[in-house]
Design brief:
The structure is a homodimer.
Chain A: H1 4-11, H2 14-23, H3 30-34, H4 41-53, E1 57-59, E2 68-70, H5 72-90, H6 92-106
Antiparallel strand pairs in A: 1-2
Helix pairs in contact in A: 1-4
The structure holds a DNA duplex (30 and 30 nucleotides).
InterPro entries (chains A, B): ArsR-like_HTH, HTH_ArsR_DNA-bd_dom, WH-like_DNA-bd_sf, WH_DNA-bd_sf
Protein name (chains A, B): Winged helix-turn-helix transcriptional regulator
GO molecular function, one term (chains A, B): DNA-binding transcription factor activity
Chain lengths: ~110, ~110
DNA sequence: CGGTTATATAACAATATCGTTATATAAATC
DNA sequence: GATTTATATAACGATATTGTTATATAACCG
């Protein structure tokens, strides 16, 4: 069972999305991830903790460093949830719905 | 330019996700949406305001009622952003990454 | 018109979030 | 062994979020 609350909540922050975007290019250490931002290192550490807690990233220990990488599983789970809405988007009855709404408006 | 902050933030709440799930089945009024929940009507009204602010739903006026429906556009935009991560998930270099990580661990 | 129904808004308390600075820890290096 | 580097944690203030109750508004109904 994924924690969608935590996952979406984690994605709601632009700094965290930028971190994920960076990690999409491959593994990176905390300092590497912090560099592009103007916020302090502790702030980044906490963002990473949030991302880890949401299952969006995983970390390993390598000496003093803690390289981070994307966790495919969590992203897949978010994707799965969105799939439900996506289905509605593309379904025909959605267009029908639009038409009906249009008709009612004109009444 | 979509507001991903607002969109993901809106999705972070389970009540709001449930509302969206309900709307995926078709239009519904505020009262209809409120029924399954134990929270009060004003709370639902505010959740809807959040969803509307995030562009995830649209509302029309029909007498006293304000029927809500999913807004395809916002969902598509979220989807698009996630696409970036999805790509990483399925890409082969991700597996390569795993292998490299494995090697480093064993060193 | 008067009462009910559908919804919104304001005010408020409880809790969460985000950034900062200061400090801790542990590995790396000189 | 002392210093530097990489990262984490604690404490704190500012702001945001969520729910509640009370109340407003406007359409509907008899």
């Amino acid at each position: 069972m994924p924690n969608l609350d935590a996952a979406f909540s984690a994605l709601a922050d632009p700094t965290r999305r930028a971190i994920l975007a960076r990690l999409a290019l491959g593994e990176a250490t905390v300092m590497e991830l912090a560099k592009p931002f103007e916020i302090t290192q502790p702030a980044i550490s906490r963002h990473l903790k949030v991302l880890e807690g949401a299952g969006l990233i995983v970390r390993r220990v390598e000496g003093t460093k803690r390289p981070c990488r994307l966790a495919p599983k969590a992203v897949a789970e978010i994707d799965q949830w969105l799939g439900m809405l996506r289905q509605t988007l593309t379904a025909n009855y959605n267009r029908l719905d639009d038409v009906l709404a249009e008709m009612k408006t004109k009444e």
